[in-house]
Automatic annotation (TrEMBL), chain A:
Species: Caloranaerobacter azorensis DSM 13643
Xref: PANTHER family: STAGE V SPORULATION PROTEIN AC, STAGE V SPORULATION PROTEIN AC-RELATED
UniProt keyword annotations, A-Z: Membrane, Transmembrane, Transmembrane helix
NCBIfam families referenced in this protein's UniProt entry, alphabetically: spore_V_AC
Transmembrane segments: 27-47, 59-78, 127-145
Protein name, UniProt field: Stage V sporulation protein AC
InterPro entries given in the database record: MFS_trans_sf, Spore_V_AC, SpoVA
Gene3D superfamilies documented for this protein: MFS general substrate transporter like domains (1.20.1250.20)
UniProtKB/TrEMBL annotation, chain B:
Protein name, as recorded: Stage V sporulation protein AD
Recorded superkingdom: Bacteria
GO molecular function: acyltransferase activity
InterPro entries, per database record: SpoVAD, SpoVAD_sf, Thiolase-like
Organism annotation: Caloranaerobacter azorensis DSM 13643
Length: 147, 339
């Protein structure tokens, strides 16, 4: 067989790849993401009515949603939701819980130290590093500009 | 002088070994697919009573080897070699599967091409007069492969349309210097072909040029015509890879479209089972060959088959370092006659 030019071959392969169903995927992401966030609003209202102050409400809501994300990951439901919803279930805080709990579950068999603890942040780790990193940079810029 | 060598990459076996028995074990998803009637054993769940998925993979490989030997009405003492491989780091599934067998063992790694690789080397060992009975076997497991190569199972991510589903399954074949067939008559060993694909979710495209290369070379070396074969089946190119390989081979002047398919396409109903581009893994060509094709050869529905197991020779490290994915494909001719 003749030698293959990698560039030409990659272009040829691109034409063979079926296009993801963008519209369908976006609609799923929009509605599931929307439902999760609307549900979050209900929780906010609930804690407000319980008499928590603004900071308390934010913290309690985040705690509740993280718990639910972790809980449904444990039940094996969240990955099924994610298969349909994509970003709709990855972006909300419940998706963050899923990204930490799923490797923790997966690597339990390698022990609690080198398995659960060491692998827990394999997916979320980069998000934390660059999330915190960029917040520090933005914070610094804000501080300097404000001055 | 290499008297058995024909052409550039092919060996014609003078004393073709007979495949005297096979055994296949698959997971529940494969057991729900279009080939379910052909598999010898279907697992109820992904763990089959073991504590870890790795243990489960090792167990089904061990069981497949033992049952294939039993079906051949041999005692384990009579078997002189086991040639086995799998996808996990340091091929632990295979080495752990044979640790209680007490049979001399060659551990092989050719990624998903390992089934045809083991059949190639096994048949050359027998033809050379180095053994009378040996076992060729491979396995893969969806859960062990996912955690090694991709993401945790419970992570809510989406699989791209080009991705393939690693088959949970194992297959073992007993080769003998004596027997009534089917026989392994030709072995075409593949070269590593790297077409520059870097997308680990598109293994089919990475392996297709290697598959095409080996198939074209096989026809050149042996002088066989397309009509000489009843079936040409690749290991795990999936839908996209198979289409690409077919175009390459047709372009080279061999129109195999009527008899060409892929184990990864046959094993799942992609629409219903949501397996995207099809099945993959060492266990794919192993279980499809040992379960399905062997039985069709036995009842003479098929008389001559070219099995080409295809492998993607990358690791998670090489991919993360931006290397492309080299492919390989090994072919064996399995025929009801010794010719």
């Amino acid at each position: 067989m003749n030698k293959i030019n990698p560039k030409e071959y990659n272009e040829y392969v691109q034409k063979k790849i079926p296009k993801p169903t963008f519209l369908k995927n976006s609609l799923w992401a929009f509605f599931i993401g929307g439902i999760i966030c609307t549900f979050g609003q209900f929780i906010i209202n609930f804690y407000k009515n319980m008499g928590l102050d603004k900071d308390g409400v934010s913290a309690a809501t985040a705690i509740t949603l993280v718990f639910l994300g972790a809980f449904f990951t444990g039940l094996g439901w969240y990955d099924k939701l994610g298969k349909r919803a994509g970003a709709g279930s990855i972006v909300p805080i419940t998706g963050f819980a899923n990204s930490i709990v799923s490797p923790a579950m997966e690597f339990k068999r390698e022990g609690f130290i080198f398995g659960v603890a060491a692998r827990m942040f394999t997916v979320a780790g980069p998000v934390l590093v660059y999330g915190y990193g960029s917040s520090v940079i933005v914070g610094l810029i804000y501080y300097l500009v404000k001055k | 002088m290499a008297v058995k060598k024909i052409g550039k990459q092919t060996v014609r076996l003078k004393n073709p070994p007979s495949i005297i028995s096979t055994y296949s074990i698959v997971g529940p998803k494969e057991g729900d697919g279009p080939l379910k009637e052909y598999f010898d054993f279907i697992l109820q769940d992904d763990l089959c009573g073991q504590k870890t998925w790795e243990k489960c993979e090792s167990k089904i490989l061990e069981d497949a080897i033992k049952m294939a030997i039993k079906n051949a009405q041999l005692s384990e003492k009579k078997v002189e070699y086991v040639l086995a491989g799998d996808l996990l780091n340091q091929i632990i599934s295979s080495s752990f599967a044979v640790r209680n067998l007490g049979i001399p063992y060659f551990g092989l790694y050719g990624a998903c091409s390992t089934m045809a690789e083991s059949l190639s080397l096994g048949s050359m060992l027998i033809d050379g007069g180095y053994a009378d009975y040996l076992v060729c076997a491979t396995s893969s497991h969806f859960c062990t492969a996912e955690r090694q190569f991709r993401f945790p199972l419970e992570l809510g991510n989406q699989r791209p349309p080009t991705s393939q589903w690693t088959v949970t399954g194992a297959g073992a074949a007993v080769l003998s210097s004596n027997g009534l067939g089917p026989y392994i008559t030709h072995v075409t060993t593949g070269k590593v072909v790297d077409a520059g694909i870097k997308d680990v979710n598109n293994m089919g495209a990475a392996m297709a040029p290697a598959a095409a290369d080996t198939i074209i070379q096989h026809f050149k070396d042996t002088g066989y015509r397309i009509d000489d074969y009843d079936l040409i089946i690749t290991g795990d190119l999936g839908i996209i890879g198979k289409e690409i390989a077919e175009e390459f081979i047709t372009k080279a002047g061999y129109d195999i479209s009527k008899i060409f398919t892929d184990c990864g396409i046959e094993i799942f109903d992609n629409e219903r089972q949501d397996t995207h581009a099809g099945g993959s893994g060492c266990g794919c060509s192993a279980s499809v060959f040992c379960g399905y094709i062997y039985k069709l050869l036995k009842d003479k529905t098929l008389n001559r088959v070219l099995l080409i197991s295809t492998g993607a020779l990358h690791s998670t490290t090489s991919s993360q370092q931006g290397e492309s994915i080299p492919g390989i494909a090994h072919a064996v001719t399995i025929s009801n006659t010794k010719e």
